[in-house]
Amino acid sequence: MPHSQAREICSRVTANIENVMRGQAKSIRLLMAGFASGGHVLLEDVPGTGKTTLAKALALSVDLDFSRIQFTPDLLPSDILGVSVFDQKENAFNFHKGPIFTNILLADEINRSSPRTQSALLEAMAESQVSIDGQLRRLENVFFVIATQNPVETSGTYPLPEAQMDRFSLQFSLGYVSPEVEVSIMSDQGAGHPLEQLGPCVGMEDVLTLRSQVKQVAISEELKRYIVDLVGATRREEGILMGASPRASLALMKVSQALALIDNQSFVSPDHIQEVAVSVIAHRMVMDPQARFSGQTTKAVVENILKRVPVPA
Amino acid sequence: MKTPRLFLGATLLFWGWQTNMPIIGAVMAVVIEASIFLPWRWTFTAKDLNKAADICAILFMALLIYRFSQDASSQTLLDLLQQIPIPFFPLLACQYYGVAGGIDSSALFYSARQKRKKDPEAPRKVVDIGLPFALACVLSASAANARTTFFMGFLVLSVWALWKTRPRRYRRSLWIPLILLAAGAGYAAQNGLHTLQGYVEQAFLDWYGDSLETKEDAYRTFTHLGDMGRLKLSHRIVMRILSKPGERVPALLRSASYNAYFSGNWTARDADFYPSPYDNAKDLWFFGDAPDSSRETVISMFLKDGEGLLSLPAGTYEIQGLKSRTLERNHYGAVVVDFAPRLAVFKVRYGDGPDLLKPPGPEDMRIPLEIASLISSQVASLPLEGETDLEKVRIIQEYFLDHFKYTLDLDGKGGRDAALARFLLDSKKGHCEFFAAATALFLRNAGIPARYATGYAVIEPGPDGQWLVRARHAHAWTLAYVEGRWRDVDSTPSIWAEEEKRGESFFQGVFDAFSNLWWRISLKRLQGDGTGRSLTDYLLWGLIPLAAFLVWRLYRKERVEKDKKSGEESPMPDLQGGDSEFYPIEEMLNAQGYSRRQGENLNQWALRLGSHAPGRLKVDVLREIIHLHYRYRFDPAGLDENDRRRLAALAKEWLESYTRGMDARKEKDHDQNFGNDLQP
């Protein structure tokens, strides 16, 4: 039964990651939902909370190509996409693939590079393809970007443009773990980093099954309407310059479906939608500067909308 | 919250009763409650309701402007507060006779109306104004200030409204004592506040009463004795007197009298005020019994802020038609009102009945030491030996009339203390305060108790048989106790009136004409039916054409059959799984007061309830039901036969166990273990 098989794949990966990431069950759940739904994930948190470790743990748990780009201010688009080099022997240009031609791409500290470089990812993330030297090149079948950024340190950074933000299905932060968990993390790393012992537990085939099964999860018309109501409400909200796009509705549906699958449910229930609504919607909205300076956040706006819009029951 | 049936009617009746407009209240109540029995409703559009709201606002503004143009006093504000439900009633009627069951927010709020203009396609947002209106009625009724009956009525209405919305999970035996406790505390608190206010007012008087300086004061009067320069007098008309043709008007209207003289000022000792009885039916304030022969006069006077001293003829025993909240007198003939109209028009009856003033005491014979020798030497020069008291008064009065001159120019030399001595010895001229003070002291020296009185002289005939009293006619004279009663003794040369008229402006005639016009309107209102027409009557007459037009418009308006199910929620039959057995559970929990918040999903709700009342609600079973319910509702595949039956069975069992638990709780106070014996 493919559904239970997919669910099995999910729990295997989750268990594998949990070997490394302590006390972050909720973040792992969200990451898995994003991965299974075929979206991309943006992790935003202060340094040292395990963003990169989480990303690497996922990459190591699945037997897929993995590459990592450390974003710096002098990084160029060609450093990501690849470059054509003239071969004097053959008297022709040879294309050298960049790190983007992989299955899982970890874009570390993505806001440190210039907007020009950041936008090199745009086409890749939305359409799984890149145009280089006027030539269209398809990316791998499974292409998953997991980016990290630090919201506190702003000097020498370029905030991601709205179009780029919209490409990410989910954005969430990890947060600090409890003191007990922090102690156990210290004990674990006494011998060596647990990442070193981590091996893949699922393969490409499994990932494809997982993703195709997510699409099979049923969602009723009424809940689709609920998603549209939630996203639509962001466009009418006070203090919001730009509400969430229809792409947000689409992402919310897909991530909810993935979450339902993780919960071993063949249909989406309202709880799933509510659980991920903030992570899916909030980062796509642009606040009015005045509202932002008065302490209003997009997260609070979405939470407010969730409380207000009647949930189907 | 929707108001319970008949609640608004009862509130309107209560309002009518409290504000003394029972008929208007009853009509409004009947209009509202009759809507239950009518089989049709009007299809008001948002635009219609906007118009209705505008009409209400205009009515209210008109009422406001009309009232304040008539009389801008604090009493008007209270009256207006009492009438608030009247102008806004049409809006309430629109709610009860319209299909929408409420009023569009765009009709009530300007911002909502602007939003609607921008986006006319947006769905109508309907607000139930029943409860706000009921609250406004209660507030309005409270302005009538009938303390005990108001509290009882307010309590009954509150309990009624709260009873309907109480969370059913609490037992009645708990709810009723709690509400009674709250009621008792409320009553105690309002009584306490009232008492506290009394204490504070008293304490304020005790501490600062002496330093409060007011223009006209029943306790003391500040004279211009010893002042310098020419006395400035206003020519404004402050009172009008109207007597029956051929009948004499009182020459002097007394405001207050004082018995103690010290350093140029007169004060009233032991001048406690006590309220006068009021006859509601005849609209009469009583001072004393009617004498054999009495006279009647109509006085209209301006009262600053609706409070102050009345100026009345000597021997006044009753006042009719004075719309004042309180009226108090003291033993020296001062009458003070509060919460009266700014232009008070009333009838005064007076005559030579039994004296209502305090009989003479030692204070009425006292002469200050510093002036006593001067007075006695002057009185000694008068031929008073062997004369009757009446004759003595006449001799002293004539002494002043003959030997002293009237002037408004004050030289102020020697200051306040020496002013009277200079008047008697040097200048031999002064204004009425000098004459009155000196006469009083002369009379006392001659063995006749005397007091100093202030008020107005009625000397200027006006148009149409009225007498005009201007501010400059303010006068002071002496009261002498002769042959067992107090008599007015005026020793100021009568030229004073001419003297004071000299400063009159060229335009005074124009001012008077306007003043006359205004006064005439006020008087007409008073004489209309004796007690004065109330504003609402006028408004109602003015409203007839408007109402007729509205009725005609409404008559032609489309009506639809009343929605039989209005108020009952239909259980979403068109949705998948709309007949789920979970809904009765939700309904039951809502009735118990465990209502689900708007954006709260079922699992969150169940967990929240579980943390409120652990054990009682059997959250685990509830969550299983919710899971099946979710599948039934949101899984396009739905439930198979077995699961469908299981959902029904589980829900039934849960409901039964819950109701059993409630019954058990009603019987026993607390049964901690009751949740356990219901496990399947």
From TrEMBL, chain A:
SUPFAM superfamilies: P-loop containing nucleoside triphosphate hydrolases
GO MF, one annotated term: ATP hydrolysis activity
Transmembrane intervals: none
UniProt organism field: Desulfatibacillum alkenivorans DSM 16219
Taxonomic lineage from the root: Bacteria, Pseudomonadati, Thermodesulfobacteriota, Desulfobacteria, Desulfobacterales
A Pfam family hit: AAA_lid_2
CDD domains: AAA
InterPro entries documented for this protein: AAA+_ATPase, ATPase_AAA-3, CbbQ/NirQ/NorQ/GpvN, ChlI/MoxR_AAA_lid, P-loop_NTPase
Protein name: MoxR-like ATPase
PANTHER family in the record: METHANOL DEHYDROGENASE REGULATOR, MOXR FAMILY PROTEIN
Domain AAA+ ATPase: 37-178
From TrEMBL, chain B:
Domain Transglutaminase-like as annotated: residue spans: 424-493
Basic and acidic residues: compositionally biased ranges: 662-672
Chain segments carrying region Disordered: 661-680
TM spans (from-to): 20-40, 52-68, 88-110, 175-193, 538-555
Domain of life: Bacteria
Keywords: Membrane, Transmembrane, Transmembrane helix
Signal peptide, first to last residue: none
Name this polypeptide is given: Transglutaminase-like superfamily protein
